[in-house]
Amino acid sequence: MKPQANSQQRVKLLSLLLLILGLWIAFSTSIGFVARGNFKVVALENLRKVDTVFANIENGEPRNQALRYIASELNRYYFSKYQWVNLFLALAGLICIVKLKSRLNWQGYLLAYCLLTSLFALFFIPYVTEVGRSIDFLPRVNRPPEVQQFLRLHLFYLAVEFSKYLFLWIVSISLMLNTK
Question: Which of 4, 23, 122, 166 is the most exposed place for a label (fewest CB within 10 A)?
Fold first, then answer.
């Protein structure tokens, strides 16, 4: 009976791991939509009462800067929270891999990479946030070097995040194919 119980435990752990990976993928996808959506929501053409609410702020670029600032602060808030959820999901996934022992070799390495990217982001995001805040009210036309620096940091973060996202999909699909 012990091998059957061990087999049932493995199925439960694999199911839990797939659930964690699915949540992680869904959460990673949704944060991208939220971040992009914040800027669309606060675009001047999408706000019905912008002239009433922002009557004291000059129309044109000053108003655009104020709205861009609001969207940026929302994104900074969501990204700081996202990093903690990201880390929790990474740890939960890695615990499942460890409990499954050596039966998942390369998937374990990919999940370890995802955990490392999550840890990295915890330290990197606050730095990017500070750089972002320093450019909130700088012109977007004829960009100063600080804006270029932020864009490079942001692009680097997106590349790391995309690689993690891709690895999550690869591990999830391989687990689903191997559990049939």
Answer: 4
